[in-house]
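Case study 2.
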Amino acid sequence: MTQAERDAFFERDIMRTFLSCCGSLIALMGATPAFAQDTAPPPEVTINGTATVVTDYRFRGISQTDKQPALQGSITVSHSSGFYASVWGSSIDDYVTATGNSNQELDLILGFKKSFGGTTFDGGLLYYFYPKTGRGNTNFAEPYLSVAHIFGPVTVKVTGNYAPKQSALALDQRSISRFTPKQDNFYLAGDLSAAIPTTPFALSAHVGHTWGPSWLSIGKSYTDWNVGASYTFKALTLGIQYVDTDGDFITPSGKNASKAGVVGSIGVAF
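Prediction:
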């Protein structure tokens, strides 16, 4: 091999090595973002909130606003382990509490939620707090447990809420003393929800039964039910429900807060 041939071979070898290194570097650069994205760990803590306007706040079928509109909102802090804490609030009518001087309800929640396949277990403690009532017996605690399972676009859920014996559940709220018998309450509900595939629409149905006697069961056992539909566009959700019960609860204004009604809502999630 002549010197000229050796020089040409050497130049070609350098060029092959250079091109090979460039190709490897380009491939590595192209793969790096996807690799980093695929392995990025999910956040340990997430914070979510909602703000909603409803034409009537119904609690287990019974109007808490004398069939008038209500403002509602919530904020939830969730940990990747499954534990969460939440605060939900709504405006209410003053007849909801024993003293008749609170226009707010705050639900303080501590819970744990975990999914196994298509089944989700959710349990915790819910504390109903009514500011400015001036009486501790108005507020009460209620443990809860729900089990939900997904069947394609359909979700079926069963929930049980049991409030142990407390002064706040006594039947005669306006003459409570240390001698007034405390009451407990149990609520069992079934919910069915279904997203309509390839559309922003969803349907829902609910039936629940409250066992009494207690303040929550309006003096005796009763059943509530509703059917509804919703439309979601990005963070905005519009909803409508038909709500009814087989109970009777007459408000100070003379309205039957437990009878049938149509409830509309508009809410935003963030």
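Helices lie at 3-39.
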